[in-house]
Predict the 3D structure of the following.
Amino acid sequence: MRRLQLSFFRLTVLALILVFFFRPVIGTVPIVRAAIGPVEFADIQSISTAKVGVSNPRGFAFLPAASGFLLWGENSELAQASLLTNYEQAGGSVNLPAGLDGSSIAAFDPSSQGLYFLGSGATRLSRVSLNAKGYPGATDSSMTRFDTSSYGVQQPSGITFDPVSGRLYILDAKGPRIITVSPAAGRNFDGSTARISRINLNGVGATTLRGLAYNPQNAHLYAAAPSEEKVYEFNATGEAVAEIDLANYDLTNIQALTFAPSADQTDDPSAQYLFVLDGGTSSSSSTVQTSGQILELTLDPMAVPSGTTMLPASLVRMIDTSSAAWNPSSPDPSGIDYFPLTNRLIIDDSEVDEMSVYAGANVYFSTLAGSLAGTCNTLSFSREPTGMAVNPANNRIYMTDDDRKEIYEINIGNDQVYCTADDSVTKVSTVTLFGGTGSDPEDVAVGNNTLFMAGGSDAEVYSFSLGANGVLGGGDDGPVSHFDTLALGFKDLEGIGYYQEAGTLFIVSTSSSDKYIGEVTESGTLLRAYDVTFMGLAQNIRSDVSYSPSLANPSIKNIYIASRGIDNDSGTGSNPNENDGKVWEISIKKALGKLDAPDTLLEEIERHRFTPLEITLEHGDRAGKLPPIHLDPFDRMLVAQAQSEQLTLVTRDPEIQKYQAHCLAA
């Protein structure tokens, strides 16, 4: 017996020695994670929360009646939350019951049509009923409280609901684990009557999770790891099965997640998209203060249709519109087109008037060489000019405004000079034209006596005839038609331009994953796609597209893309002091098979002693007076040059041969 006691004593001492001396070594053993595959996803849009007065949000909940979100900042702001209606418009404030615990953890339950808040101590769950308008009630009488102290939640970090069963899921970051609560009869969530179970979350190591969302399309849960800038997907047994890497989006402080219908009003309402709430930075120690944002993601990303050939495109040059090159500068150029009457590019900027660099201009005229040649502003009718188009048939200018939901037509008057006293503006509401919320009017194009509008986050192209008078309004505009671009791989359609010679459209998306230009028919058939991977993966790189004359040879057209880059107040890495605007000139002629030329074309022209013919003011004036027999303004410029210089024009184009110019059939 003594020997047994001694052996036990020795074993005990040995165990203590091992623990004492080897504890530091054991503590350094890394936590092994399971191999987790990436989730295919694509960003649809980024919505600034500052537009509703919540610069640094701490919580949000989807509200079907608003077709948007209820947002709040610090706990002290919870009593008066802010509405973001139609996913992008400020909808005022909503008073919440004073009796709420002040927790920022909330979720909407479709099965009970109630808004639930989990108290900061996780001992009470409060349900706020909705009023007749579908908004949460403002008084304590609209609130039902449930005792949740027996749930055993130690560090509450998110809640969500299964919309079919009404089951409640709570993320306990201490673990981490999921508390599953099946309510008793009458939607009773009291811990004494509800059925409670717990699932440990595996495969993510010791990372701290925050925010929880239930995906009804696969019954999986999603939780964010803010320090890793990732969202993890968990199956029903708590295993991490995939991850969404958001490192490219500069999310500094992920607060919450939710699944909700797409912001695209034309999408299937049953389709669910993941919305990620980021709180931005509010610390005075930060170099740059960033506003919060809601990032919309699709977990079923659409690329260009299978079988689509990605044709090559090449960068010709970039035009710098920032303060380094232009004064006044265009830090966020959003619209661009060619103005044949002046042989200039015309560019508008939707954000500059909100910035400290604003100097009275938000419209700019640029030579083809990229030099600033003049400015104007639209403040008399629009503070948010997001798109730009010129009708070469009558020299009318078109713009869009995605805040006011309007399209503008500018008649430059008898003097045929834009930005003078005889200009007049006609405007139409896109709500009136297209119904609903008026879509998201980001850009406009004109061709074949038809106006085309890019619907932004709705991923739609809308179009209607301008009627017999060829102008906006007047009672003879044709009926509206539209086609979807999401199925073509264009998720946030911000740019559209008309290809006059072919009668087709060029389209671009600002989504970082859509690294291509599309060419489509007027009815929405994708004909070609051009690879512009060289532009990079940043958001807002492709803001508008125009097919306009090249600098090297004005008789050859190239693609021009206006590029906002970093935004001043929304989106990834926003910076109120940014000034990085530019325009990309991109060649696609070789891909179209319309230019059989070597890469050393300019050198060959010089070697064979061709003489360049500069475009003069006389040429421009004569071209502007030519009848629009040919719709291509550059072909009309060739006719004008041939007439002015008494030259012979070699061409096989029968339309050109209808002009009074000496032509030699090719």
Summary: The radius of gyration is 30 Å. The chain has three domains: 55-298, 310-592, 613-665. Confidence is low (pLDDT under 50) at residues 1-34, 284-288. The CA atoms of residues 17 and 23 lie 10 Å apart.
